[in-house]
Specification:
alpha/beta, 2 domains, 16 helices, 49% helix
Length: 399
């Protein structure tokens, strides 16, 4: 396969909207990135991360040294949790405003980077807050520059225009998508991802799989979405078991990182539909539920519902996961069971009841799908009509 002819230690510059650096040792590019910021008269930055991984991966030492060598001052907000909320974004923004930050650096997985994107908007719109941003009370057209140092291989947020934050008091987990929050630069260094726990390795990779399955089957999908979906799924099916078996396998981490990146580009074009629209209420209600696990639980039931609308596309892109699909609209059950078998093969067997939901929750979850800002847009581009009955059936089939 062509992958064997790539030198994973050769840092590639990948240009989408964001300039992304992919490869073992890519973290060393942070000095060049900060040098560029300095030429933009940026001498103070807000850094956002979770509590531990920015240090335990070794990323922080590189960033700190580069900040010091470029005489850029910083203030650190390291309280971002999985499924970040508007309170965290507002706290970080206030810290950045008081400090006079002119850019934001997010270090971590999707949560810190999404929170950093949100703060970057609010540093420009100083009279607004995160709740107003995520309830669509205003439409931002600018944000301070964003640098994304990615420590997981799943969200694709380091190269796309999306961000997600929870409004916990309402159970809302909306998404925003604005051109102003494309990161200026991104770093995807597989060597920073070797300490990802097994379950997180699984869940972030499943997130990327869902990104492309959805993006390739929306009403606005384009040929690039399908191309990227095929490659994303092929790479993850091939390299995820290797990363699980040997977390230090840099080749596996490299291709999982690349797969995540191109998956981010895929749904940046084709958008998302059922799986993300229905998962956001799950982790909106239960912030401790890992996003990728919620997606995995829902995926087989969603494949069952949408297969007849996109049988040839799904047969093609799912081929590495499910053998023998021919693109016959009647194969929905076979595809659904095949996806479930593949998930079981990598160790993901949970159902909604296993993560604490009961069937009486279906009505509340369904209402959140239709009441949460932004999720209606996702439902509207699904390949089949996103009725309440179909949403309820997907939830019911996921128990």
């Amino acid at each position: 396969m062509w992958e064997t002819e790539i030198n994973i230690n050769d840092i590639k510059e990948i240009r989408v909207k964001t300039t992304a650096y992919l490869g073992v040792g890519a973290i060393n590019k942070i000095n060049d990135i900060l040098s560029t910021l300095k030429t933009m008269n940026i001498d103070k930055v807000l850094i956002m991360s979770g509590k531990n991984s920015y240090k335990s991966t070794g990323a922080w030492e590189h960033v700190k040294n580069a900040l010091e060598s470029n005489s850029i001052k910083y203030v650190l907000y390291d309280k971002v949790t999985p499924n970040p909320n508007v309170i965290q974004v507002d706290e970080a923004t206030e810290l950045g405003k008081q400090f006079g930050a002119k850019a934001v650096i997010g270090i971590g997985g999707g949560s810190p980077i999404d929170a950093a994107k949100s703060a970057a908007i609010l540093l420009e719109y100083t009279d607004k807050n995160a709740t107003e941003l995520y309830e669509y009370k205003f439409t931002p057209e600018k944000a301070v520059p964003i640098i994304a140092i990615n420590l997981t291989h799943g969200t694709g947020t380091e190269v796309d225009r999306f961000a997600v934050t929870t409004i916990e008091e309402k159970g809302f987990k909306p998404a925003i998508a604005y051109d102003c929050i494309y990161p200026l630069y991104a770093i995807d260094d597989p060597a920073l991802m070797t300490s990802l726990p097994k379950k997180q390795t699984l869940y972030v990779s499943i997130d990327a799989i869902n990104h492309v399955i959805e993006a390739a089957t929306t009403k606005i999908s384009n040929p690039l979405d399908v191309l990227l979906a095929k490659e994303t799924i092929r790479l993850i099916v091939k390299y995820l078991p290797k990363a699980i078996e040997n977390p230090n396998d840099l080749e596996a981490r490299y291709y999982l990182s690349y797969a995540s990146m191109i998956a981010g580009t895929s749904f940046d074009n084709g958008l998302l539909h059922f799986t993300h629209a229905l998962e956001h209420p799950l982790s909106g209600i239960k912030p401790n539920l890992t996003h990728g696990l919620g997606l995995a639980i829902l995926l087989p039931a969603i494949i069952k519902q949408i297969y007849s609308a996109k049988p040839n596309t799904l047969a093609d892109i799912l081929a590495p996961m499910v053998e023998g699909l021919e693109g016959n609209p009647s194969e929905g059950n076979k595809a659904s069971e095949g996806i479930k078998d593949w998930l079981h093969s990598v160790g993901v067997t949970e159902t909604l009841s296993d993560v604490g939901f009961v069937e009486n929750d279906i009505e509340k979850l369904t209402n959140l799908v239709f009441d949460t800002p932004s999720l209606g847009l996702l439902i509207s581009v699904a390949p089949v009509d996103g009725t309440k009955d179909i949403v309820k059936q997907i939830y019911a089939d996921s128990f």
